[in-house]
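Consortium newsletter contribution from the modelling node. Members have asked for a concrete example of what our holo predictions look like. Here is one, prepared for the pyridoxal-5'-phosphate complex that several groups have been discussing at recent meetings.
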Amino acid sequence: MWSARQRSFRGFLRNYRTIIGEDVLRDQLETIKREGRYRSFLTPDRIAGRYPQGQFQPFADNDPRAQRIVTSYCSNDYLSMGQHPVVISAMLAVLRTHGVGSGGTRNISGTCSYHTSLEQELASLHQAEKAVLFSSCFVANEAAISTLGKSLPGCVIFSDENNHASLIGGVRHSGCRKHIFRHNDVKHLASLLAQTDPAVPKIIVFESVYSMSGAVSPIAEICDLADQYGAMTFLDEVHAVGLYGPTGAGMADHLHVGHRPTIISGTLSKGFGVYGGYIATNSVICDTVRSCAPGFIFTSSIPPAVAAGALSSIRHLRTCSIARTALHQKAQLLKRLLLEANIRFTEHGTHIVTILIGDPVQSRRVSEMLLRQYGMYVQHINFPTVPRGTERLRITPGPTHANYMLHQLVMALKEVLAVSGRQGTVPVGSSSESNIQ
Ligand SMILES: Cc1ncc(COP(=O)(O)O)c(C=O)c1O
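And here is the predicted structure:
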């Protein structure tokens, strides 16, 4: 037992340590605020049936310019499947019959028929032997790459310099030797592969559609190199599944190379509009990951209703391309309108449209003006999501944007960019980013 004196001394030490730690944290937060990177989360409550409109109380009630209904132009629910009646009724039915939570980890009482059906559907979507479900694709990427890297003695990983944080995390936690290749630069990747011992296992990690620029990777060329050097490929299709290919299997499938990547990872929360993540690959890799990855083993499985909603969304999008076609039409219309308005943007032929601002304070300002004055929600994207100096607006037009909404957005953009003195700056960053003047 501690005496009262000892207890009080321990309390003093604990407080003392906390105060020192808090000072450091406060200083760091001050720096973040000074650099215009402090994140305040907006609360646009989406209205099912009326999306992309949402209810929103962004500013004080006495602000005459406050807008209550805003139109969102930056959601990753790319196809509006998050409000699709098929998905909503599938989820409601399972909520009523099976309740809310899954009740456990996959191994201990947390697997239900919806999890296994969903894994089978995902394997079939990607024409893979098997799929493994995770609570998100962040977890899927981190868990699968780190587990594979640890399981393959001497493995060397080759990672695109613009890869998402979840892929970077996976590479780091694998403990493997790594090479970072220049963004989408096949020649650089080839030279790094050529310098590596032919006998060691290798994994090339990259994305199909890069989320912050919309750039597409040279999937076929990277798979050619993988074949030449005996490497596995890990392709993140997070911003492509549901959206590209005749059945929504992603960009690789759209480019007729869907069978080539060794492992495809995807999310259920963007194109499919629900929640969760997965990998689809061969049985040996799936079995290794589900047997060894802590991110799969030691966490509760996704709720049955979530699995059922994702399953119904995937099944719907495999056979119905109305939303997919509309998404690409809206993206084309937006780009045409931006061109006509002489607003510069990055163009990679995908659904992601970015306008480079190049300054954290200005990008926040432009975004706030759109929201306050026009009731339009376009999130500014700042460091660390994008490199410093490449701060941007990221617009994701979707099938539920009426044409007039895109016209209104471009008119508003023209005005706010003029006020801020930025007509969309010349893009900086990756060399593959092109710009339409
Ligand atoms: C390229 C990429 N991979 C993985 C993820 C993580 O996906 P999830 O939202 O399912 O965790 C994201 C999230 O935005 C992403 O952009």
